[in-house]
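Summary for the funding panel

The consortium committed to producing paired sequence-structure records for every protein in the target list. Below we show the first two records in order, beginning with the earlier of the two.
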Amino acid sequence: MVVSVLYLYHSPSSVILSSFTLKPSHVAKVDESSPSMNINKDQDTTIECNGSSCTDSVGILGDWVDVGSNRSFAAPVCCAWDAEPVFFNGAQCRKEPAPHLYSGNQDNSYQQLGVRGCSCTKFTDKYEWQSPTLPSSFDPIATCRLLGERKVLMMGDSTNQQTGTTLMNSLVPGRCQTQITVALSDTLVGLNYGVLNRGKPWDEYTKDIQPDIVIVSVGAHITGANDTENEETYTAVINQVNDGMLAYQRDVNNNVTFAWKTQQPV
């Protein structure tokens, strides 16, 4: 029902969201007995690598390819609201900062993001993941076509906000950016664990918005007095959310799909 990583790619017949196969016509409840899952509770989901070639538990083969460091990760359009804002083609940016809950803009302007999300213009990485099963470039029009009328809700801290905002802005050419909603929920459970506790719990947002796909992450705002306590607290929060997701599918909507997104570094 819940997975630990998120990646998206599409073929003519399906969209792959982590371990889930989402057919273009519908999003079904995850059925662990379905042959399409190719995963069980006891399966080791560790990605295995041999040299530069890696295969994950879903069976996607690829390689880390040295493409050189002379490339930029700066987006052609990037909009920021916080300290040291950087604007590229700022006329295309929404003029006011996004609140704790927001969706893609109906006027096709680009949503702003924070935590210096536009300030990584000097970042370089000479390695690129390439796979024959993945498209060579992101196609927002095809992605919107395959998404159909489904709604996506992304919840977590500011790093999840950045991911959700990047996704909705990337979908502007396909005109389905309004179907992507981002909700700030630092700990997902509405409790303070040592840092910030902004936003509402994940289940309140989910009941209010009633999305078809829910993508969550949690990380930096859960801390403990020491490494052992921190790990125990973090695990307890994840287990609490997982149990809630199962209950939501059982009692509220058994067609919603849940996924965990890995926590990127801050």
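The next record, for a separate protein in the list, is shown here:
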Amino acid sequence: MDRRLYGALVAAPAVAVGLYALYAYRSKKSLYFWFNVPYSGGRGTFRGLFVKARNFIYRNTIQDRLWNYIEARSEVGNADSVLAAFDDYCYNYEWTWAIGDKKAVILAKVVQEAKPKMMLELGTFLGYSAIIIAQNMPPDGKLITVEAFPKSAEIARKIINRAGYGDKVTIINAFSYDVIPNLHHDYDVETLDMVFLDHFMEGYVADLKRLEKGGFLHNGSVAFADNVRGEGSKGFSEYIRSSGHYECQFYEADNGYIEGMSDGMERGIFKGADMFSGETLGL
């Protein structure tokens, strides 16, 4: 092999890392942040390897690191300071699954318009959206939020409590398909004024149908979903637009903390309570 070609091949990785470092420095972001952001066209495998490597090195998880950052840089009972610390960490250190400040504006607007007294969130993760909901629902409103993963539920409780909404928000550590059939019996839920779906995208439609058939939606209930342009959640928009049971509106939005990665949220105002009256949960 030609020596010059061999030299170029050897030097290329070092040059690439150097350019990454320069870009990270100029944009005031940690180099790790850029390796941590998932590719728009992939499944985040590259990101996952770096997250696991960092978890191994620091002997903790991204949930722990985010909580430590928030605890050190926010005030107890000051939700805005908690969200600001959350945003700062995710923009500059480690990207993670949260709606982020841009989508939060849309979520806040939809909650304000719906004025839910009883609301269900599927997919708490670390509590960012739960805080936004609690801030914008009526003073006597109640939020039940469901998170399948124990570590995320544990840290979400800490973050939500620090924001001052521990009494307003009930966190359930379980899978949504186990919680929904027992909403009435275990959580004294008659009907829901709003449900926010932001969990396992492939489960959006199945869980919405469980809520419909269980009689938990009344005329005027709002079904609102995040990441509706994702591969797994495309069926949600198709379902609510074609079912004839919803009045729909789509909201264009960037994907979390990744600028320029197009995504969307969709609202459906339920109009089909009469269609499901008397039905029992059959899914």
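Regarding this second record: The chain has 13 helices and seven strands. The CA atoms of residues 115 and 137 lie 6 Å apart.
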